[in-house]
Write a structure and sequence with these properties.
The chain has eight helices and 49 strands. It starts with 8 loop residues before the first strand and ends with a strand. The strands form eight sheets. The protein has a 27-stranded antiparallel beta sheet that branches. Strands 1, 2, 3, 6 and 9 form a five-stranded mixed beta sheet that branches. A four-stranded antiparallel beta sheet has the order 5-4-7-8, with no helix packed on it. The protein is globular, with a radius of gyration of 30 Å. By secondary structure, it is mostly beta strands.
Length: about 950
């Protein structure tokens, strides 16, 4: 009779072989389903130095082990860890017989889920995503909860963004120079191809890189390490896409020394969860390895994942109350079909060649060359001499009329003069036309054809007032890297690595659609004369589809980095020391001579150079075979990203004044208890990021004086924060208990205090007052009182309780309930400066600006906590030696509506403007929010043969 255990099935044919002068264990590891030997399984004796990989026939054997009770751990990617106790006797080799490892189907299927939460939380045009799949495959209950159960609410481990982690493919860092984040969609839809991963958490040592303070992720696509076979997957969901198909084939290493892996996939949605959000993604992966000898192998890897998705808008509470939580202002009907004006398109192939050199049994040298090229585009509507096409433009909403005030009376505020009649008319009109009116845009770009009788006989294309354009980035990146590791003796492993990266980035505005018109003027309609010209070298251009216009410039960046690491391992203690160095060089080259900045926009900027160092170390105390205690610490500096180096990069070559590298410190302590039935971890952490720089753009009202008496000047400005410090402190707790052979319970908790730890300097750049004499129209607003404000966009408390049942007949079901709290709005720094209280027209303080009222206006909004109930389940079948697997999940079963993030609009930049807007009851420029998914499902069917 066949006996199956879904967490571990071990056939213990325990025999005692008395061999002279040998004390140890031996055995063979097999796949529980296929009964085939498993090679390269990591077999280790917990909290000792004893570790080895199984051979190609699945066998392992240890000699000279420590006597007494020990725990043997079996670990292999894609399988459930196996941990069980043994007793080592002197002069005996304990034969464990056959060890059966079960495929970790739940974690394998959950890997598909993390990508469902990739949508950007910001409305910028960054090429990369802010959410992180860093720890999606880890076995720890806390890390699984963070990725799969809390990820939908935008939870971030330790409150850190993905720029504080290093994501690598075959030893090459994939973090972008522009903003420091990886572009996950460059390998999206290729779950099977990217399943071979290694992780480190926090500043723990990695064999591949120095890493960041969040951790490292190494994706290995070497063709020979994939399990041979074919896998076909079909999925359906109602999140950002509706269906997915994926197929993967792995040949294994042939007798002639060749290994091949091919994977392809498709994800698609006419409309995702939010209205008007299209999704179309294709994925292709190829890995080919040639074993040249026992010491040398070459591996080619290629990724090609073109994808596009329609964005969804953040909305004010007013708009959401008038519509729904799934409302999206970015789309409208055209010829009966929904058309989204804001589509993100990514097409960046990756080509990589790796050389694996096994110098000897103790030393390896792996070298890589990567080339990445392609485009990222973010489309939007542009318009001249016409009304805003945005259906939620503030003048089109009821709040514009219900919050009206009369003109100021000297130093004092005008009277409250709401127009409720027009507010109601506006409400009715908005509800009748809540989307972009594409037909009206086309009509505005055409002129009537009048016959001799004065009658309209038709329409013809004219100068476009509205066009569809794309903020376009064409990048080309070349990376060369090498990684060396050697075991110098039984107690010391040495790692060293270095890489060189060169980026050439072309950024420009690309005209996509004239929307029925014949041409578009390449001018800025907010200015006149020379200042209106995008390029004085080619003034008064009439652009058509395919032309660059507006702005046009290049970035050049080179980065060299290197690290060394020493790892010491002894019976009762392990410790490591690592150090890093990097040299970063940026330069901007303007291709247009902008009319506003005619002396500093065309040609090359000064070069910006940063040299940075990092040091980290840690110690692990092996309390017993089941318990360990570890401490890690790091101190490093980090160059600012390109985004935060050039504050007005679209228009000129200016560089942030006083720009500095960030200084980062991190400490953590972890206690781990691991036994066959109980797994627990308790971690405390503390990190600081100092001297950060942050650049943003917005439209502000009432911050400049134009010399026209008591009239406030409005302006589109760029805001730069310098000397911005952050502090993250908190704890993590993970607990798993195997109640019996089929039932397991788990509890996870994360508690943090993520705050701003300084009052940064705020400078505002106003293009409207730039001139030949004044090339840096920057206004110093002094300090923003941000210290102790909460960092935004993530829950700072998260708790999860779950239970799962795994039946011996290969079906399972699980339920978890999660509570997430302490999520805050992103505050406007300019509203926290002393200028907030000053009337820009007179220079005096607003007489009505009391401290009590200011505290009310500037209190950071805290979102309501959310409770999420999730269900998962599945079953697998064996059919004539092939395997069919079904996985089903339902997230947010109770269909709760909740906010995942948001930001204060900065348009009301002084006390009076904000106070008047808020006092009306429904502000015109209220906070804008992003919302989470309601009840969603994910169904996955896979066939393995």
């Amino acid at each position: 009779m066949r006996k199956i255990g879904l967490t571990l099935f071990v056939v213990l044919q325990i025999g005692f072989a008395f061999a002279q002068n040998k004390t140890g264990i031996s055995g063979t590891v097999l796949d529980a389903k296929t009964q085939q030997p498993l090679a390269y399984v990591v077999v280790s004796i917990q909290n000792t130095n004893a570790m080895q990989l199984t051979e190609t026939n699945g066998k392992f054997s240890f000699d000279d082990l420590i006597l007494g009770d020990q725990l043997v751990l079996f670990h292999s990617q894609g399988y459930k860890d196996a941990l069980f106790p043994v007793t080592i006797h002197a002069g005996e080799v304990l034969d464990l017989g056959t060890i059966m490892l079960e495929e970790d189907e739940i974690s394998d299927q959950q890997r598909s889920l993390i990508r469902l939460f990739e949508n950007d939380l910001t409305d910028d045009n960054s090429g990369s995503e802010s959410t992180s799949g860093l720890l999606q495959s880890s076995k720890d209950a806390f890390q699984q909860a963070a990725a799969f159960n809390w990820g939908q609410a935008r939870f971030r481990i330790r409150g850190l963004d993905s720029e504080n982690a290093t994501t690598m493919i075959n030893g090459v860092s994939m973090n972008k120079s522009y903003d420091g984040r990886p572009q996950w969609s460059n390998w999206g839809g290729l779950n099977d191809a990217t399943r071979n991963q290694e992780f480190t958490v926090g500043t723990a040592p990695s064999d591949y890189t120095f890493g960041g303070i969040l951790g490292t992720q190494e994706i290995n696509t070497r063709a020979s390490i994939y399990r041979p076979g074919t896998r076909i997957t079909v999925s359906g969901t109602n999140t950002n896409y509706n269906w997915r198909m994926m197929g993967t084939f792995a040949s294994g290493m042939s007798d002639s020394g060749w290994a091949l892996v091919v994977s392809a996939g498709k994800r698609y949605a006419e409309e995702g969860y939010f209205e008007g959000t299209t999704y179309d993604a294709n994925s292709l992966f190829l890995s080919v390895e040639k074993k040249l000898s026992d010491s040398h192998s070459l591996n080619f890897t290629g990724f090609y994942t073109p994808n596009s998705r329609g964005k969804n808008s953040p909305n004010t509470a007013e708009v959401t109350e008038l519509t729904s939580g799934t409302y999206n202002s970015y789309w409208g009907y055209q010829d009966g079909k929904k058309r989204n004006a804001r589509v993100k398109t990514i097409e960046e192939p990756i080509l990589m060649l790796n050389h694996y050199f096994k110098i000897n049994d103790h030393s390896n040298l792996n070298s890589s060359v990567m080339v990445q090229f392609g485009k990222i585009g973010n489309s939007n509507l542009d318009y001249q001499n016409a009304n805003s096409p945005d259906p939620t433009y503030f003048r089109k909403l009821p709040s514009y009329y219900s919050s009206l005030y009369g003109k100021d009376e000297g130093e004092y505020s005008g009277d409250f003069t709401p127009d409720y009649e027009n507010a109601e008319k506006s409400r009715v009109q908005f509800l009748a036309n809540p989307q972009i009116d594409w037909d009206a845009l086309y009509q505005a770009n055409q002129k009537a054809i009048i016959n001799s009788n004065g009658n309209t006989t038709g329409y013809e294309a004219a100068k476009s007032h509205y066009v569809l354009y794309e903020d376009r980035t064409d990048d080309q990146t070349i990376v060369a890297s090498s990684n060396f590791n050697t075991q110098l003796n039984e107690n010391l492993i040495f790692n060293a690595g270095g890489s060189f990266r060169k980026l050439e980035s072309h950024n420009y505005q690309l005209l996509l659609d004239l929307l029925g018109g014949s041409y578009f003027e390449d001018i800025d309609g907010f200015y006149s004369g020379n200042q209106a010209q995008s390029d004085l070298n080619n003034p008064n251009r009439q652009v058509v589809v395919g032309d660059a216009y507006g702005y046009n410039y290049k970035y050049a960046a080179t980065v060299f980095d290197a690290f060394t690491q020493f790892k010491f391992s002894y019976d009762k203690v392990d410790f490591y020391l690592a150090q890093s160095f990097s040299a970063t060089n940026y330069q901007r080259e303007g291709l247009y001579k902008n009319g506003i900045y005619e002396t500093i926009s065309f040609g090359k900027s000064e070069k910006v150079l940063f040299e940075n160092f990092g040091f980290k170390g840690g110690v692990l105390f092996k309390v017993s075979g089941k318990q360990s205690l570890s401490f890690n610490g790091a101190h490093l500096s980090k160059a600012p990203t390109i985004r935060n180096t050039f504050p007005n990069s679209r228009l000129n070559n200016s560089i942030v004044d006083g720009l500095q590298s960030e200084t980062i410190n991190s400490l953590d302590a972890t206690y781990v208890l691991r036994s066959p039935k109980l797994k627990a971890r308790l971690t405390a952490y503390y990190s600081t990021i100092k001297n950060a720089t942050k650049t943003s753009f917005f439209y502000a009202e009432g911050i400049f004086d134009n010399g026209a008496g008591y009239t406030n000047t409005n302006a589109f400005v760029s805001q730069t924060l310098t000397q911005l410090d952050r502090k993250n402190i908190g704890g993590e707790f993970s607990f798993e208990y195997q109640l019996n052979s089929t039932i397991k319970g788990n509890f996870s908790a994360g508690y943090g205090q993520f705050t701003y730890d300084s009052n940064p300097n705020v400078s505002i750049n106003n293009d409207a007052v730039a001139s030949v004499e004044n090339t840096k129209p920057s206004f110093d607003f002094g300090k923003a009182n941000l210290k102790n404000y909460k960092q935004a966009g993530m829950p700072q408390q998260a708790y999860g309780l779950g239970i799962e049942y795994r039946d011996p007949k290969y079906w399972w079901i699980g339920i978890n309930i999660n509570y997430l709290a302490d999520n805050y709005i992103d505050v406007s720094p300019i509203s926290r400066t002393d200028h907030f209280y000053t009337n820009p027209a007179s220079g005096f303080s607003f007489p009505e600006a009391t401290e009590e009222r200011a505290r009310e206006l500037l209190k950071q909004e805290k979102f309501d906590p959310v409770m999420l109930l999730n269900l998962i389940g599945g079953k697998s079948w064996r059919i004539k030696g092939k395997y069919l697997g079904l996985f089903v999940s339902v997230n947010n079963v109770l269909d709760n509506n909740y906010k995942t993030g948001g930001y204060e609009q900065a348009r009301n930049a002084n006390f009076r403007q904000l106070n008047q807007d808020v006092s009306g009851g429904t502000p015109s420029f209220g906070n804008k929010y992003f919302y989470g998914y309601g009840r969603t499902y994910f169904v996955n069917l896979n066939f393995n043969f």
